[in-house]
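In this supplementary section we document a worked example of the pipeline. Step one takes a protein sequence of length 128 as its only input; no multiple sequence alignment statistics are reported here. Step two produces a three-dimensional model, which step three serialises into structure tokens for compact storage. The input and output of this example are shown verbatim.
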Amino acid sequence: MDFGEFRTYCLAKSGVTEDYPFDQTHAWLKVMGKLFAISNLDPFTFKGEVVQSFYSINLKCEPERAIQLREEYDFVTPGWHMNKKHWNTVITEHAPEKLLLELIDHSYDLVTSKLTKAQKLELKNLSQ
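The serialised model returned by step three reads:
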């Protein structure tokens, strides 16, 4: 799954918006203003040197499942620059697309489950 496919999949979900709060190389995807995914568009560089040549996604995850995924897959690591208990980084070039879609859905569902009643109602109205 490349960034375009990831972006299209996420933006098709109800209430999702895309933001670039710090630069044009890190997309933040939010549902009802709440972050559920961050992705780099370009390889990470530091002082002109490529640090990370792969495309990755940070996704919210239920803590016990986050640990299980990290133990099971070497392409799932604790969330880079995120709360390691609640976020994973997934290196997409090694992740099967079916699993990646499942993890995106899980992150979206975790965030929407914590919305207020009013936000959930608004989200429901957006999806109709």
